[in-house]
Amino acid sequence: MFSRILGLDVGTKTVGVSVSDLLGVTAQPIETIKIDSEAGDLGFERLAELIKEYKPSKIVIGLPKHMNNDEGIRAEASRDYGAKVTERFSVEVDYQDERLTTMQAERVLIDGGVRRKDRKKSIDKLAAVLILQNYLDSHKF
């Protein structure tokens, strides 16, 4: 039985979303969901639609660690978001170290000739792709 996995790059203003193919080999970008974490808007309405559409067996959330492997406030926020996702959607959540993925995404877009103002639109979903792809590569199914 094959199923998809969603990848999320959770920030304070956006959540980048990616999805695996059915074989769990490659990750593709879906979209960036605008959120307002301070106001309690976590983008769950849109996430519910994506869960209904893709029917993932699991959701992988990027875990922003410090370079010394410690977890700080952003990692705590990602784990909190994951707990809320599990509680609300009854979907298994796993975490993937996301150190340097935003910088990798930025480099990919720069190398691809994407203009600075257009990079902002794509960086979060590309970071979500990198998070999910790293997860898939390290968890051969």
From TrEMBL:
Localization per Swiss-Prot or TrEMBL: Cytoplasm
Enzyme Commission code: 3.1.-.-
Keywords, comma-separated and alphabetical: Cytoplasm, Hydrolase, Nuclease, Ribosome biogenesis
Domain of life: Bacteria
UniProt key word Magnesium: no
Gene3D superfamilies to which the protein is assigned, alphabetical: YqgF/RNase H-like domain (3.30.420.140)
SUPFAM superfamilies xref list: Ribonuclease H-like (SSF53098)
Enzyme class: hydrolase
Chief location category: cytoplasm
Domain YqgF/RNase H-like as annotated: residue spans: 3-105
Function (record text): Could be a nuclease involved in processing of the 5'-end of pre-16S rRNA.
Family per record: Belongs to the YqgF HJR family.
The name this protein goes by in its record: Putative pre-16S rRNA nuclease
Organism of derivation: Lactococcus nasutitermitis
